[in-house]
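Action item from last week, closing it out:
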Amino acid sequence: MCVKRAKNIHHIFELVTAFLALKNGAQLIVTPEQYPRQVIDIIKKWKVRKDDLESLKSIVTSGAPIGETTMQLCKKRLKLQDLRQAYSITKAGGICSLAPYGQEILKSVGILMPGLRFKVMDFGMKETCMPRQLGQILIHHSHVETPAHKNPEQVKAAFVSEFFKTGTVV
């Protein structure tokens, strides 16, 4: 299997994905910049075809939620054994939750990674939300990045009782 990546790796999920691909014997193609001509040349050189996806068995997505209908269609058309979602945020130390291998609930981002705690707070940051109530995800973990120079105003703006405000609305 050969993984083609013609973009910078600067987000945590891209880095984790790159390491997983390498661990599984893939070859990465990484360029400092991406230009259309360069991407076309890479595709030609490595003989990548849009229909040459038979070796693809598993896909994990992160960065933005994908609807369940789209996930089902993708899994069926690509004949995947595994398709799942993860929730990741670089400032919170990486992947925060990951659906287990083979999970059938495609719209879920799965279970929390060890050592993490989540809560969903109302937008005023006063109360924990009830199930299915709109709010913001907050994360507690020892690896959460604190604001530069631990400026008290920045810390207050980014945290509520040691929980990091992700900005992610659910």
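Closing note: The mean pLDDT is 83.
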